[in-house]
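Still learning. Any example?
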Amino acid sequence: MTGLRQKSAAWKTLVFVLVGLLLLGWLLNTPAGLLGKADAIGYAVCHRIDLRSFHLGDRQLPLCARCTGMHLGALLGLAYQAILSRRKAGLPPRRVQVVLGLLACAFAVDGANSFLSLIPGAPSLYEPQNLLRLLTGTGMGLAIAVLLFPAFNQTAWRDWQSQPALTGFKQLGGLVALALLLDLVVLSGNPLVLYPLALLSAAGVLVELTLVYAMVAMMVFRAENLYTRLAQMLLPLTGGFGLGLLQIAALDFIRYLFTRTWDGFHLG
C-alpha cells in the first residue's frame, strides 16, 4: 500500500513539474505583457484579422469579434450554470435545445457568409459586420457552455444530479440577457472594461480546453465520478490545463514557423 501511494505521489509530482516547465517555456517565448500572452492564445485559435476585430484604442484585441463573443459567451455560460446549478448534469429541455440549435445555426450562417466575402465574386447574403460576428459568436459560446457544463459534471462528480443544469426558458432568458449586456459592454469600447474582457476572452479558451482535456484524462485513467470536492480534482485539472496549453503552444509554433510574425492575417 505504501508503495502504491509513493508511486501515485511520484506521478502527481511529475505532472506538476512537466506542466510547470511547459508553462514557463510558453511564457518565455511569447509576446511580453498580459495582452501579449492573450495574443498568443488567440494566435493559436483565431485568424486575428485586424478589420474583423475590436480594438483597445489602436491595439487589436487578442481575438477577432466572433471569437471574442464565443469565448466570453462560453465563460459566462459556465459561470452562470456553476452558480445556479452546481452539480446538475442533465441536458436542458427540448425547447431550450432548439433555441441553442438556432444560435449555433446563426453562427454557422454568419461565419459562412463572412468567409464568402473574402472570395472575389462569391455570392453573399448580406454585408458582414463585426456586430453580427460578436452576437452570433456569443450565441455559439452559450451553446458550448450549456453542453460542456453538464458533460463535465457527469464525468467528474460522484454525487452529480440528473436534473437539467439549465431548466427552461426563464434561466435561458437570464443567461441571454447577461450575454447581451456583455456584448453591449464590448461594443462600448470603454478601455476600463475592454482590457479585462480582452484577457477574459483569452482565458475562456484555456478554461474550455482545460475542462475538455480533464474529462479525457479522467476517462483514460478510469477516474470518472471519484470526486466530491474541487480540491480533489487538482491533478486532472492540472493535466487538462497542461494538455490545453500544449495544444496552444504547438499551434503557436506551427503558425509562427510559417508566418514569422505574431500579427493576425492581413486582407489584401
Notes: Residues 256 and 262 are 7 Å apart (CA to CA). Helices lie at 2-28, 34-45, 65-84, 94-116, 130-156, 169-188, 191-220, 234-259.
